[in-house]
């Protein structure tokens, strides 16, 4: 037998050396040479003899054990490894099947308890109850370990390099989901093996309690109640662990699935475009890319005024003139066409000031109408324009401040060049 | 519902941005905060005005134009094509497309290789040079609030999810998948010939504000609009 005190003392004394080694042992074994070089890095002042003594001590205390059939490779003793994993909260995820096996065993123990009570064997009954209690503790410990392991799985996926493919990054998440969470969901479901197993064991314990009251005590009631409470705790813990697993892994799993769908969708679309052109992606797939309304709105105050006016819009009843009644006053003038204005402007060339000319032509014209003609005429390729100094112009309704243009006839060669550059 | 206009302190800039097709996301903290705080009021007001404000839970707002007359235009096709290409390119390189397109970034120096690799596809979208790629795709992405550019680094913003959604809907489109293995023609959508039709009008005017006065910019835009109407008529 190894003296526990010596093992614990060695672990405490050498913890700074053991902790970094744990990380290596988590992922595999180490050869004697690797072990020595690791230790010499941490103990730069020690001699090779010191390191040999240290390793000897660990081997003697069964902290380090040789790997089967490879005497020069070492690993941490599995018991010590589990103990250290518990202390470091770095657990390996167990199997759902283990929990199921434990549950079957609990059910069997419940059967033995029932038998022992029926034959009134107090000693056996107490022993089986203790065994049941210890098994429940095992399940609890395993569930808590698994929860820690699940947190680590999610953390590794979240913190790993963002540049590696998602499939690779989330491989562990997907495997964990398929191998642990999915079976756990079935196990812990209302009609699953877990609930049914717990129900059977609970039923036996509660029946035992009432029978003891009727037939007299074989074991202490407290023992029964404590075991019963622990079983209920196990049931709650299983549900909490499962919920936590779903909360941790479901979003990551969905992300991975979405990633696959996005990549596949992009590849499909590109393949379709390669074969059948840009229009191959059905319009229905792009419902949102409609052309926005092209009505123009100008400055901030205009937008505000526009929205404000629209918000308070009240339709006015339209009064149409009677067909029979004769028109009073002058007939409204037909709006000028672009061609008409262009011709007039062309005839009036050269224009020293386009805006002033427009005001002369249309002294009663609306401001927006004048601005429209100003813009339309000044941009026409028939004219060559020179910007004038900014000044004020008075329309019938407004005072407008702008830089007008002087227009002359455009040189055909330059207008062609301009067109081709456009 | 009572709408208190005094509470909608950013109404004008919000409306102007949304109206020109821009997606408001957390990159515009003032507008975004105002929209998220007064979401219902803005939604009701815009609805009354005939604009459908979409509030995407992934953190962005945009206008959905009316379905009647809605057409997929060339810009949208170009941007979607660019997204498909980028997703495939990143996946080929072993990088995570979602990480890049959802808040990640892409260097301008990566564009030439992308253009070279997918030249056959870019040609279909009339993108043949890097300048065109930057002008017709990257600048558009920035103008519409899908991305931002800083020192030659393009950072993709939350609204990119709209393009990722296109990838997902294509993936779910069994007809498309089936048609890839058949020789029958695809049901192609009828598109308006919007060769020269820009997705945003305001920006054209906004660019010119630097060189022309604001009044001129307004008059030019009115003129362009009327010219369109003349063409339509």
TrEMBL record, chain A:
InterPro entries in UniProt: MksB_put-like
Source species, domain of life: Bacteria
Annotated segments matching region Disordered: 318-339
Name assigned to this protein: Uncharacterized protein
UniProtKB/TrEMBL annotation, chain B:
NCBIfam families noted in UniProt: condensinMksE
Organism: Pseudomonas segetis
Protein name (Swiss-Prot/TrEMBL): Bacterial condensin subunit MukE
Matches recorded under Pfam families: MksE (PF21980)
């Amino acid at each position: 037998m190894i003296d526990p005190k010596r093992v614990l003392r060695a672990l405490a004394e050498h913890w700074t050396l053991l902790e970094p080694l744990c990380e290596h042992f988590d992922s595999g074994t180490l050869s004697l040479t690797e072990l020595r070089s690791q230790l010499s890095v941490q103990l730069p002042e020690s001699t090779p003899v010191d390191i040999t003594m240290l390793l000897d001590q660990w081997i003697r205390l069964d902290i380090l054990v040789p790997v089967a059939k490879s005497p020069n490779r070492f690993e941490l003793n599995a018991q010590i490894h589990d103990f250290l994993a518990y202390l470091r909260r770095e657990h390996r995820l167990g199997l759902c099947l283990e929990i199921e096996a434990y549950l079957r065993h609990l059910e069997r123990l419940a059967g033995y308890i029932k038998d022992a009570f029926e034959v009134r064997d107090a000693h056996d009954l107490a022993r089986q109850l203790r065994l049941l209690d210890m098994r429940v503790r095992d399940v609890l410990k395993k569930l808590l370990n698994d929860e820690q392991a699940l947190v680590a799985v999610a953390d590794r996926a979240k913190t790993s390099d963002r540049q590696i493919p998602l499939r690779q990054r989330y491989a562990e998440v997907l495997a964990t989901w398929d191998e642990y969470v999915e079976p756990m969901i079935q196990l812990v479901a209302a009609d699953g093996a877990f609930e049914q197993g717990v129900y059977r064991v609970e039923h036996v314990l509660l029946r035992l309690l009432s029978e003891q009251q009727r037939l007299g005590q074989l074991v202490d009631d407290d023992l029964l109640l404590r075991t019963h409470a622990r079983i209920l705790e196990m049931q709650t813990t299983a549900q909490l662990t499962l919920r936590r697993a779903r909360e941790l892994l479901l979003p990551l799993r969905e992300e991975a699935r979405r990633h696959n769908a996005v990549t596949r969708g992009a590849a499909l679309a590109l393949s379709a475009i390669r074969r059948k052109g840009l229009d191959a992606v059905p319009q229905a797939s792009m419902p949102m890319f409609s052309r926005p309304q092209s009505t123009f709105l100008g400055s901030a105050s205009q937008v505000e005024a526009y929205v404000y006016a629209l918000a308070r819009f009240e339709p006015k009843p339209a009064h149409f003139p009677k067909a029979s009644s004769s028109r009073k006053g002058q007939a409204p003038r037909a709006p000028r066409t672009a061609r008409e204005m262009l011709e007039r402007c062309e005839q009036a060339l050269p224009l020293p000031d386009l805006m002033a000319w427009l005001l002369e032509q249309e002294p009663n014209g609306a401001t927006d109408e004048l601005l429209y003609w100003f813009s339309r005429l000044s941009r026409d390729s028939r004219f060559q324009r020179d910007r004038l100094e900014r000044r004020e112009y008075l329309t019938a309704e407004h005072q407008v401040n702008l830089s007008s243009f002087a227009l002359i006839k455009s040189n055909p060669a330059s207008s062609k060049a301009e067109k081709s550059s456009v | 519902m009572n709408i208190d206009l005094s509470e909608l302190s950013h109404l004008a800039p919000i409306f102007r941005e949304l109206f020109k097709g821009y997606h408001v996301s957390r990159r515009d903290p003032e507008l975004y905060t105002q929209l998220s705080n007064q979401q219902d009021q803005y939604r009701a007001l815009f609805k009354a005005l005939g604009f459908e404000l979409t509030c995407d839970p992934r953190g962005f707002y945009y206008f959905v134009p009316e379905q009647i007359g809605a057409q997929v235009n060339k810009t949208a096709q170009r941007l979607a094509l660019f997204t498909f290409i980028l997703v495939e390119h990143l996946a080929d390189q072993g990088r995570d497309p979602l990480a890049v397109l959802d808040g990640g970034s892409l260097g301008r120096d990566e564009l030439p290789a992308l253009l070279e690799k997918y030249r056959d596809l870019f040609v279909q979208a009339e993108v043949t040079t890097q300048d065109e790629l930057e002008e017709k795709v990257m600048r558009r992405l920035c103008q519409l609030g899908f991305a931002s550019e800083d020192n030659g680094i393009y950072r993709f913003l939350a609204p990119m999810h709209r393009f990722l959604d296109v990838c997902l809907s294509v993936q779910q489109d069994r007809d498309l998948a089936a048609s890839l293995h058949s020789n029958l023609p695809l049901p192609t959508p009828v598109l308006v010939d919007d060769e020269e039709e820009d997705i945003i009008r305001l920006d054209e005017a906004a660019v010119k504000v630097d060189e022309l006065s604001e009044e001129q910019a307004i008059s030019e835009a009115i003129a362009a609009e009327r010219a369109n109407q003349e063409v339509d008529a």
